[in-house]
């Protein structure tokens, strides 16, 4: 039995988070959530409309079963992110928030300075904060010190499906983290997710790769298996590829004659 | 999760890990050599156990080759030199292994500013720019205020100043950092709590947990460089080597604003002190240095003049990055040697110049200064 994932005092069996954008239909999203085995689902606050007559995205998510993680996508500043999160809480959403501050509308890259500011404000306001962030090890520590419940560094630009292009930085973040590290953005294939888990990431968040597959539920199952396999490999002691030894002169000659 | 090192430390079953090390297989050693420090948080202790095992000892030359390459890749062929400057041998602690222990009838001295400066001038004349101020534990004679005064006095003359004195509070460390302190060395002596109680009979040093959390307080106060370690031979060595690794690894990951080094001292003879209860062979010490280097590629490793020249020269190539030389371990000893007042005997009697010449012959660059704290002294000493 693998280790469970603990975030802010809650335990989860699944290490796969799902995003809910870009699905062809509410039905296929519901089936994909089911097949993925995930327990945490992010939802853009701007897509939630409690007053909607024709229903909204929440109609397709069983909130008894999944922890809803509202995100602040669309926010361009700390102040906007704070306002969005407070509106969601006032409307009865959970006090967990996936913090996204993305002034760059072309690549949707997170603003590190506004993200840190927003994290400080949200933590002070009692939110459980999981910030989407550039893969910057120093920023990860600063966010941890600000009291965030996890960090969510990006693997590559969001929606790019390019995998772990920030691998060297992710490795440092994972090594130094005292809170869970969830690799978010850029994971385009189950092999990318498995690689992140083999490196020791605590979880991954996947959206586009599942939502735009021709069979989203089946792709969701593929990610579920990849995440489980990567984690199992990490926990059971993966040996990396070896470099060949170079021949060189002896280094322990000074021990000869010494008592063994 | 953020409960400090003690929480991690007390949760580890060291006897079980010791057993695991004794039974490590060739495959365990292979895996540890292949991983070489990656995934330290998850597999660090497992790999460290494997590299300290009898199985790995049979492959010591292979370990040494890997450790040497790893050291050169990370640090270059560079050795940093430092010298201890003993301020005082006054001590309220009673410790079985130390020459300064309270009941020992040695000549007790605490240097005043003028005498400290005379010692400093001797070290400056030999080329040292990194100085380690050392003293016994005496809250009145060696107060935080006294230490602050000595640091302020020496600040203009040295590139970096470290202390190896009684553990201080976070606030006291802040006060010393403002005066110009760069580094703190605090050795746990042993991580075996029962043995710790047997060897620390009275005085403040009896408090194991206060000492254990010292790196956390120092780092919180802004101390840039922190040295830790165990006095090898005081307790069962494998236990202490494993715990030293766990402590260093935790510090590196969690106290990310400070850099860390591990010292690998073996218990030496001293006035009124016990003989080492456990012997650690040259081979085991060398294996420890290799395992530290391979599992913590970025860590500094410090070696004092407690060891013989031949062994010191050998260990430099395996992973040591900081060396003392020409040391006297009694207060005022550079000006007026007094072996009746020293903390322990030294085994490398070469002068700093001789040590430096030998290192150059081994194709190492000898660095007397690699930092200038006045460059970063925002709000600190001018």
Secondary-structure map:
The complex is a heterodimer of chains A (260) and B (382).
Chain A (H helix, E strand, L loop, with lengths): L4 E3 L2 E3 L3 E4 L6 H11 L3 E5 L22 E5 L6 H13 L5 E4 L12 H13 L3 E6 L3 H10 L5 E2 L13 H10 L5 E3 L5 H10 L3 E4 L1 H4 L4 H20 L25
Helix pairs in contact in A: 1-8, 2-3, 3-4, 4-5, 6-8
Chain B lengths: L4 H6 L3 H9 L3 H10 L4 H12 L2 H4 L2 H16 L2 E11 L5 E2 L17 H13 L4 E6 L8 H11 L5 E5 L5 H10 L3 E3 L7 H7 E3 L5 H5 L1 H7 L4 E5 L7 H18 L4 E5 L18 H14 L4 E4 L5 H10 L3 E3 L27 H10 L3 E3 L15
Parallel strand pairs in B: 1-3, 1-10, 1-11, 3-4, 4-5, 5-7, 7-8, 8-9, 9-10
Antiparallel strand pairs in B: 2-6
Largest sheet of chain A: 5 strands, parallel
Counting helices, strands and paired strands, the structural category of chain B is: alpha/beta
Question: Compute the gyration radius of chain B: what is it?
Answer: 20 Å
| Estimated radius of gyration of chain A | 21 Å
* Fraction of helical residues of chain A: 25-40%
Number of beta-strand segments of chain B? 11
Largest interface: A-B, 31 and 35 residues
Total of DSSP H or I helical runs spanning 4+ residues of chain A? 8
User: Which bin fits the share of residues in helices of chain B?
Assistant: 40-55%
The first-to-last residue Cα distance of chain B is 40 Å
Number of domains of chain B: 1
List the total number of helices of chain B. 16
The rounded distance between the terminal residues' Cα atoms of chain A is 42 Å
CATH architecture of chain B: Alpha-Beta Barrel
Which strands sit side by side, in order, in the main sheet of chain B? Answer: 1-3-4-5-7-8-9-10
* Overall pLDDT of chain B: 90
> According to CATH, what is the class of chain A?
Alpha Beta
